[in-house]
Amino acid sequence: MPRLTPADASLILDHVVGDSSTPTAVANKLLAELPFPSHPTPRLLRSILLRRLDSDPVSATALDLLQLLASLPSTMSPVAAAHLAVAAFLAASTADFDAAAQALFAHPSGRARCAVDEEGGYPALVSPEAIIVADQFEAAVGNMFSQDVLRRLWGNRAAAEGRVRELLAAEWTLIGPSMLEVAAVRIVGDGAVETWRVAEEPIRAKYRVLAGEEKTREILCKLEEPEPASHVDLISTPEVNKVIDALKSSCADLHSVVDDPLPAAKATADEVLAAMMDKAINITGEEGNNQTTNCSVVGRNAESLSKAAPSSLMDWNPTARSFQVSFLCVYWFISFEDGPCLIHFEKLN
């Protein structure tokens, strides 16, 4: 059997060690036998930290593992809660509370304090709660009453381990596929047809070995099928380009022999509009000359109507209340095509 290259070993470790269903003993055996890659994948690093944390969830080593886990990219799990629970338990459960609290939470160099500091800590571990707890442990140094309170709050090992177990479950869920699984999807999965189409023959020969006879036959049959019509770019065909050039040439010839009718049509429209404006002004002048006569006639009619009206409605119904308003209006308007309608009202007494 040929010796594995570092690249091959990296793919195997990434796939096997990064699978949560792989027993820890098998993962440790592979890590001991295979050459460890100089540039391990993030998935491999994360899985190694998770397996070591699973075997030792609450200790000073676990605190270091949690900080390393927080330094990896894309950490969306509750690592901050687990880190705070372990650090607080280590300080609260020891016999020498003052020494442990100073080593973990004192300014400026406490191990847990540095990790949760907003300026130099890990973003995944920084939280307001972590700062508050760190301040409480630092202030409790030399204060027996505060120490007793903190021991009751954080001195339960089962609670701290429970936080770590929650973290482990969330991290294994978010660890994602291995590099081999991603490659398998490209070679024999949903992206197989596109991968095989662009691959050269030597590469396809390797794909045939990986895919097997039946899967290879299936992929090759799909490659022989014609592409959907929607994937064909008709605009780029020589025939279409020839037609487009012919249309451009015809349009140029047409413009050279046919006059544009728009200027003549616009001049005719301007003449018609001017004639309509003159006619509207003449009509307005005639109506203005007849205004006085019309008003006087209407005024006499209004006076006669007023005299004919009953002097009081109280004669018909003594209990009624009423009033009477009479007025007449005359109006005229001038309409322009490009302007608003002008209306004038005049009250006639």
Characterise the protein shown here.
Residues 291-310 and 320-349 have low confidence and may be disordered. The chain has three domains: 41-173, no CATH class; 179-224, no CATH class; 262-309 and 321-348. The protein starts with 5 loop residues before the first helix and ends with a strand. It is built from 17 helices and two strands. It is mainly α and 349 residues long. It has helices at residues 6-16, 24-33, 42-55, 60-71, 79-93, 97-105, 111-116, 128-139, 144-154, 157-173, 179-188, 192-198, 201-211, 213-224, 238-257, 262-289, 291-308, and strands at 328-334, 342-348. β1 (328-334) and β2 (342-348) form a beta hairpin. The chain is 64% helix and 4% strand. It has a two-stranded antiparallel sheet with strand order 1-2.
